[in-house]
Every structure is written in C-alpha cells, then in structure tokens.
Amino acid sequence: MKASVDRSYRGQPLELARINPEEMQRRADEFHARMATRRSVRHFSREPVALDVIRRCIATAASAPSGANKQPWTFVLVTDVDTKRRIRQAAEQEERAFYGGRAPASWLADLESLGTDHDKPFLEDAPALIVVFAHRQAAGGEKNYYVSESVGIAVGFLLAALHHAGLATLTHTPSPMGFLGELLARPAHERAYLLLPVGLPALDCEVPVIARKPLAEVLVEVASNAD
Fold first, then answer.
1. How much is the average pLDDT of 63-71?
2. Would you say residue 12 lies in a domain?
3. pLDDT tens, 98-111?
4. Is the preceding peptide bond at 176 cis, omega within 30 degrees of 0?
5. CATH code, 71
6. Which of 11, 25, 60, 151 has the fewest beta carbons under 10 Å from its own?
7. What would you report as the CA-atom Rg of the chain, rounded to the nearest whole angstrom?
8. pTM (global) more than 0.85
9. What is the 3-state secondary structure (H, E, C) of 115-168?
10. Adjacent-strand bridge partners of 145
11. Is the pLDDT of residue 2 over 60?
12. With 90 as the cut, is the pLDDT of residue 3 above it?
C-alpha cells in the first residue's frame, strides 16, 4: 500500500546527468588530487583578492544540505581593516588565556608540532575573514534541527570551494567565540561557529610537515561476500 504524502510536498525532476564509470573515476581522482593539496595557512599575503570569487564560494556553501532544509547559517564577510583589527585583538585575548592555562597540557603538547601560539597576525593580514554563525533556532523562535551537523557540512563545502578557486584558508576557532557575535552585531539566536581567514599565501609561506592517515586506516567496508 502506498504511503500517504504530505500535501505540502512539491516535487520537481532531479537534474543529475549520468556519466560513464571511467568519467566518474577521472573526476574522483582529479578532485582528490586537488583537495589533497589543501593546507591550513597561517601566513597570508595582504594582496587583495576578488570578493566576487569569495561570494560565489559562500553561495556554494549555502547550497549544502541541512536538517529539514532549515539552512541554519549566516556567513559574515569581513574586509574592513578596523573590524579585522578588533577581531584580532579580541581573539588574541582569548588565546592568551587558552595557551596560558586554560588548555590542558596534553592539548598544548599536540599543538607543538603545528607551531601555533596566541599571536594571530593572519586575522589582519588576510584580506578577508568569513565568520560562520550557526542558528540555534530560527529568527522567529522556530526549532532548527541538526544544527552543528548542517553547519559543518556547509563549512566543508566552503573550504572545498575556496581551495578549488585557488584561495588559501585557515579554520580558526578561538575559544570562546562570543566576542564575534558582539563585534559583528549578530542577533542572539546566532552562535559563532568558525572564523575563516581567506586570501593568498605569503610568498614565504610555510606549513607544518604532517601526514594523513592512509585510506586503509580510515575506511571500513561492509560488502556482500557474493562473487
């Protein structure tokens, strides 16, 4: 028996072209190779970048799936020099407390190989900052669903889009981040989720030597035993 359908539902044909397996593999390999070169950058050039490129990448992020299609996110694009300076000052105040005693010794030990400290010049050097806010509820008080998961997926889209466009990024999460809502005059139902400097890397930019876990260590397959 066919299940009843909510009369508020409206459908439209899916637009997804079918491609042959060889082309699928080529695209998967090409995208993997491209994304494997993405690194978190802490040394940015002050050279300006095309804001329309960043806006288009944000539009890509906003196309991400979300719980009940509530789209519980706001992306604040900051290029104003004074605002970036104030964000840096507030972030460094929190980071000094973090590195000066708030963080456990084990966490600080794990950060040593990445060469990070409380000094965050990239917040002023990068020509643009994207501050991502998660909506704990809708503006009218309606409930949102799977907010952290939804915003996390959108941020993944954003990182991939920016890297694909040729821009460098850093996922920065000073803790706590309440100062961002205050500085950017965001409403109470929005919570700062991520601070993302965006731009071109400095000519002398270096990144830490790291290794990614091999696929065999992170992939578990549950497949049929049938031939």
1. 97
2. no
3. 888 888 899 888 88
4. yes
5. 3.40.109.10
6. 11
7. 21
8. yes
9. CCCCCCCHHHHCCEEEEEEEECECCCCCECECHHHHHHHHHHHHHHHHHHCCCE
10. 67
11. no
12. no
Q: How many domains does the chain have?
A: 1
Which residue in this structure is represented by tokens 């030990």? 109
Residue 160 lies in a domain: yes
- What's the whole-number mean pLDDT along residues 39-46? 97
Pick from 5-19, 37-51, 136-150: least confident? 5-19
Cα distance between residue 190 and residue 151, in whole Å: 12
3-state DSSP of 15-75: CCCCCCHHHHHHHHHHHHHHHCCCCECCCECCCCCCHHHHHHHHHHHCCCCCECCCCCEEE
Residue type present at position 17: A
Cα–Cα distance for residue pair 203/197, rounded to 1 Å: 17
- The answer to the question of residue 150 being in a domain is yes
Domain span at 55:
40-90+120-202
Q: Is residue 124 part of a domain?
A: yes
